Amino acid sequence: MKQVGTHLVVDAWEAPQDLLNDPEGIRRALIDAISAGEATLIDLCVHQFSPHGVTATATLAESHIAIHTWPEHGYFAADLFFCGSGQPKLAMKILQTALKAKQVRMREIDRGFEETTRVEESMVESLYHMVR
Amino acid sequence: MKQVGTHLVVDAWEAPQDLLNDPEGIRRALIDAISAGEATLIDLCVHQFSPHGVTATATLAESHIAIHTWPEHGYFAADLFFCGSGQPKLAMKILQTALKAKQVRMREIDRGFEETTRVEESMVESLYHMVR
Which of A15, A37, A110, B16 could cysteine-pair with A91, CB 3.0–4.6 Å? Predict the structure, then answer.
């Protein structure tokens, strides 16, 4: 496979509700995480839901970081997709420390493509159906 | 596991370079995909890299969609994370059609957390080290 990047898929729980419901704290944690991860921020959206929950997406030169919190469950989901340079695990360590999650499950996924020869349309269609 | 959402991790290739390097086309495809997926857009960032490549992140009420393109490889990576309602596979179908990828690998990941009892700090630390 031609690998273009590494994607950390993180589920974290047993985190304090107040930290998961604080958009400004999450904004600061993300900026610190991006710095620690040696990544370059292009755009940052932080959104507070009512009655609770925060979503933040950081568009990076390296790809993206996204975080979604469920304070009522003490849970957050984080994705850190870095292509090229950068240290996604260091970035994740900052997020975990800032949000004080006691349990973390991290899955590391290689992103990229198979270097195949051209295939017929019929094969493409069947590939698509395989994954539906 | 307490599931909070479904995450489609998609790698797609054999797509035309010009479509992968067209930020306005990708913006339209994303808006169409969000509509087809019955999702609600909060914020959309579309960024063109030099000399080529486009990154777009859509912050959704349901979580997020991100897409990163490598026109020089005919490749794009897409993530569609939907919690609660919505149809992420329909959204992905729109993206694939718009960008004319002939090969698609889709991995479907359940996102959520284990409903465990509280654990000791030492155990948390060892869990973290397991995944480094």
Answer: A37
